[in-house]
Amino acid sequence: MIGKILTRLFALFGMTLTCVACYGIPEAEFNPEFTASGRVVDSEGQPIEGIRASMGGNNEMNTSTNGRFYVYGNVPRVHLDDVDGEANGGAFESVTIELGESVAELGDITLTRIDGEVEENEDQVTE
């Protein structure tokens, strides 16, 4: 009886190892290649809450009350989008920032209201 149980357990374990060996483990979900953080501010240097920061895939967050964000992903660019419209200081331009390294502290990123001229940081590209 115990022999049959052990035989079935070893067979199940062997099939599991075979599946992992053939198909691998999806490491992209667990080991992002890029991380970025920063603070989103307006042209007067005031933090902007409610800006969506994303880096491809399912990873996205809205900036906090102090304008801070932290995102990670497998693409070397950060998208900043105003998702709340006129709330939190007005509507702001969307911005895409190309990353030059795998871990980036972007510092202050200035967004401008849609009715104003866009101010660009050194690495910023507007959409």
- Major sheet characteristics: 5 strands, antiparallel
How many independent structural domains? 1
Spans of at least 5 consecutive residues with low confidence: 116-120
Arrangement of strands in the largest sheet: 3-2-5-6-8
What is the CATH superfamily classification?
Immunoglobulins
Task: Name the CATH class.
Answer: Mainly Beta
Identify the CATH architecture: Sandwich
N-C termini distance: 68 Å
Average residue pLDDT: 77
* Helix content, binned percent: 10-25%
Plain-language structure description:
It is built from 1 helix and 8 strands, in the order αββββββββ. With 127 residues, it is of the alpha+beta class. It has a single domain, classed as Immunoglobulin-like (Sandwich). The strands form 2 sheets. A 5-stranded antiparallel beta sheet has the order 3-2-5-6-8, with no helix packed on it. A hairpin with a 5-residue loop joins strand 2 and strand 3. The N and C termini lie far apart (68 Å). The model is unreliable at 116-120 (pLDDT under 50).
